[in-house]
Amino acid sequence: MRPEKVAGVADSEETQTQPRVVPALKEGYRITCVLYQGGGANLLEKLRLKGFMMSSLFYARGKMIGEPIISNRSFAFQMPKEVVVVLCLKDDYESLFQWIWEEQKIGEPAQGFLYSAFVSHMSEFCLPEGIS
Asked: Is 18 inside a domain boundary?
């Protein structure tokens, strides 16, 4: 059975799908930083200025570790947390983890926490040549 034709697309060799060149898969780490006092957008900007473009910012709500639950109403007044996730190559991991730890003062009380996980395969995302 032949697939239906798409409107506006002619049958020619030009429209045939060309094999994609997949960038080499690399090992790396995913570093996740949960900030209680905010500052995620600033950290994201600093990461991008340092060249770590594979980073993103999320928002979450929930209780801090060890914070008592007074009543069901206390859930309505939770402060949002900012979650910054960055992917880095294995060679950059130690220095980047240490830099985030110091930059966000993670060692001080109520600043947040930082953890990482090994990523066995990741590839670069890049636009085709001529597109910026």
From this structure: no
pLDDT digits (tens, 9 = 90+) for 42-90: 999 999 898 888 889 999 887 666 666 665 555 556 678 899 999 988 8
Task: Count Cβ neighbours within 10 Å for each residue of 29-38 and write b for 16 or more, e otherwise.
Answer: bbbebbbeee
**Residue 34, C-beta contacts closer than 8 angstroms, at least 6 positions apart:** 60, 81, 82, 83, 112, 113, 114
Domain count, the chain: 1
The CATH number covering residue 55 comes to 3.30.70.120
Residues 11-29 have a mean pLDDT of: 60
In which domain, by residue range, is 56 found?
31-64+74-121
